[in-house]
């Protein structure tokens, strides 16, 4: 009997470690690409115009399609393929006795032929506008019948290409390992044997200098499984990162990406600008936006029949429209939900370029970036689609010691941010636990009073239905190790993603509210306020019907969080909805340094008669 109970306990533990999974599925995964058969119809056609894109340096353009077919059906669809010359020649047989499939590469996007043509089924004729971005190769458009599960290729368009497909594109800023260092990462089609990557930069209106960039790439063998290693694979090009050092605080700088060819000529990207970070403790207004689980969306409506990430563009556009009032962004996991379809990372970096090229875009790692069985991730699921962290670790820079250990700290003026990696073990006794304690313990709260803990999965408190069903109201084992650290070091706010909704708790410790105020906290908090902010774009998740005492505000909608530190004593927290940018929940903290020093439950050494 004892053995049976022990075995049952192990099984339940393994089940719980699967964690909460996301809603929806990657739209490209619905296409049975290996089932494609060649069924060219001489009466069918598809034409794309213009054939040359980006003649004036643009990296995003609209293409018009005109198509016709003799036997139309409601499930006919159009796939965008890149490279444009796709065929069985790029496919490998699974074994020497079988022929390779006709197609073994997924399209980078698709749309139904009847999308903007209500009479398509009757006439067999249609037109469509699709948006393309510069992705280091040409494109073609293929018309399929038979739906997504039994696709038959009936027509292929002419080739469409950007004037310079290898151009440096999609710069993304991130803070370096010190407060006065900014990093610039971008993508191009130029390896170091073709051109030398660098950034030309300097104070706005001042003398400009050059900083060389390091170059990374990876191949199919770096992927851990399908679809990243099979139908989802696409050459990532080259990822370059340059380090701009010894910046003066709160100063405007300009920069542009460059590549110097072996013959002495140059290729340039457009001019961008950014404001350097304030020094730790600097007293200035500092504005931080935080959210998780945004993903990418398509302005042309493609790929979106199942509402995979319906709020992503709304969130992105709200940030772009308010960019002059934002200093730094934290996207805390589940970045673009590529799920092994590599092309989607380029599309995501294009989507956020207006933001990430201007202010630091900092990341945390989520299950859809890292998790894959047998690769060292804490959860043994397949949520990354075989990427196993490779894409997020290469496409973006974060100031970690080891990129696979995606935890780090970063300072922004009066803020200290401790970013955890929930896809690796965080429990007491682990390397990450020691990092978290050091990050929390090492901050000077007189200079940096606002201490913020960030992570993807909810390690604190959440009323999401999935967590409530488990009975833990958070990741199993989430709070057990960390809540004593949050309390001991007086973390102000802990913000998580993963659950696709918004929720705010009272200041709380060990399931008990430590402060009954809801909107204006004056003096000592006595606990940590926990926030779920995973509703930035992905399909929403339901709350439990259970009304917990610690839950102050819930919202089943897309949105994001904004923190504004006015000085060392006053902080404003706001939750804004993505559809209109208006504030729907807020609170203020007003206190002095002595309030941080004050002892609360488990925050000071135990008193004894000897002391």
From TrEMBL:
Q: Which residues form the signal peptide?
A: 1-22
Q: Show where the Purple acid phosphatase Fn3-like domain sits.
A: 46-164
One Pfam family here = Pur_ac_phosph_N
Q: Which CDD domains match?
A: MPP_PAPs
Which SUPFAM superfamilies has this protein been placed in?
Metallo-dependent phosphatases, Purple acid phosphatase, N-terminal domain
Specify the Calcineurin-like phosphoesterase domain's residue ranges: 287-502
Cofactor(s) needed for function: Fe cation; Zn(2+)
Compartments annotated for it: namely: Secreted
GO MF, one annotated term: metal ion binding
**Main localisation, per the record?**
secreted
Instruction: Give the Purple acid phosphatase N-terminal domain ranges.
Output: 170-275
> Quick one: a GO cellular component term?
extracellular region
Entry EC number(s): 3.1.3.2
| Domain called Purple acid phosphatase C-terminal: residue spans | 527-586
Reaction(s) catalysed by this chain, per the record, are: a phosphate monoester + H2O = an alcohol + phosphate
Top-level division of the source organism's lineage: Eukaryota
Query: Which keywords does this Swiss-Prot/TrEMBL entry list?
Result: Glycoprotein, Hydrolase, Secreted, Signal, Zinc
Description of how the protein assembles with itself and partners? Homodimer.
The entry sums up its family as follows:
Belongs to the metallophosphoesterase superfamily. Purple acid phosphatase family.
**What protein is this chain from?**
Purple acid phosphatase
């Amino acid at each position: 009997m004892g053995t049976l109970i022990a075995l049952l306990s192990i099984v339940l533990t393994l089940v719980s470690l699967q964690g909460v999974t996301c809603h929806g599925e990657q739209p490209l995964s619905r296409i049975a690409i290996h089932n494609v058969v060649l069924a060219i119809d001489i009466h069918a056609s598809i034409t794309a115009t213009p054939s040359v894109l980006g003649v004036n340096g643009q990296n995003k353009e609209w293409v018009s399609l005109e198509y016709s077919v003799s036997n139309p059906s409601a499930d006919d669809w159009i796939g965008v393929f890149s490279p444009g010359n796709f065929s069985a020649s790029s496919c490998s047989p699974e074994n020497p006795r079988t022929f390779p499939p006709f197609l073994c590469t997924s399209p980078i996007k698709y749309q139904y032929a009847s999308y903007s043509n209500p009479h398509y089924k009757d006439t067999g004729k249609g037109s469509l506008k699709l948006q393309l971005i510069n992705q280091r190769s040409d494109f073609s458009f293929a018309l399929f019948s038979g739906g997504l599960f039994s696709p038959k290729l009936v027509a292929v368009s002419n080739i469409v290409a950007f004037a310079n497909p290898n151009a440096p594109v999609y710069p993304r800023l991130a803070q370096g390992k010190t407060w006065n260092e900014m990093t610039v990462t971008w993508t191009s089609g130029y390896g170091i044997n073709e051109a030398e990557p660098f950034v030309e930069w300097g104070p706005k209106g001042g003398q400009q200098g050059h900083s060389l960039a390091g170059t990374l790439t990876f191949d199919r063998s770096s992927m851990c499984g399908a679809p990243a290693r099979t139908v989802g694979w696409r050459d990532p090009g080259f990822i370059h990162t340059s380090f701009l050092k010894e910046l003066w605080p709160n100063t405007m700088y300009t920069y542009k990406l460059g590549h110097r060819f072996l013959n002495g000529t140059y290729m340039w990207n457009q001019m961008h600008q950014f404001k350097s970070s304030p020094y730790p403790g600097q007293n200035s207004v500092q504005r931080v936006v935080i959210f998780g689980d945004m993903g990418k969306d398509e302005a042309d409506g493609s790929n979106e029949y199942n509402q995979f990430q319906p709020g992503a563009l709304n969130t992105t556009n709200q940030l772009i429209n308010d960019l002059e009032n934002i200093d730094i962004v934290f996207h805390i996991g589940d970045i673009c939900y590529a799920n092994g379809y590599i092309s989607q990372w380029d599309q995501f970096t294009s989507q956020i370029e207006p933001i990430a090229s201007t202010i630091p875009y900092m990341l945390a790692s989520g299950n859809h970036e890292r998790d894959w069985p047998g690769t060292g991730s804490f959860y043994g699921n397949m949520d990354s689609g075989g990427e196993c962290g490779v894409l997020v670790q290469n496409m973006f820079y974060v100031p970690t010691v080891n990129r696979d250990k995606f935890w780090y700290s970063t300072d922004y003026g009066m803020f200290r941010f401790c970013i955890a990696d929930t896809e690796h073990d965080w429990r007491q006794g682990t390397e990450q636990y020691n990092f978290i304690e050091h990050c929390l313990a090492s901050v000077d709260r007189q200079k940096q009073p606002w201490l913020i803990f960030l992570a993807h999965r909810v390690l604190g408190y959440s009323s999401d239905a999935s967590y409530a069903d488990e009975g833990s109201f958070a990741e199993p084992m989430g709070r057990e190790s960390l809540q004593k650290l949050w309390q001991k070091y007086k973390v102000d706010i802990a913000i998580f993603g993963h659950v696709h909704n918004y929720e705010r708790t009272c200041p709380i410790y060990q399931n008990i509210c430590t402060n009954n105020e809801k909107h204006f906290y004056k003096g000592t908090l006595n606990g940590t306020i926990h926030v779920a902010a995973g509703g930035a774009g992905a399909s929403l998740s339901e709350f439990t019907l259970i009304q917990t005492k610690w839950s102050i505000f819930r919202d089943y909608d897309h949105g994001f969080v904004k923190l504004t530190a006015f000085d060392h004593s006053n902080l404003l927290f706001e939750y804004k909805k993505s559809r209109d940018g208006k504030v729907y929940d807020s609170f203020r903290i007003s206190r002095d340094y002595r309030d941080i020093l004050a002892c609360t439950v488990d925050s000071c050494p135990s008193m004894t008669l000897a002391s």
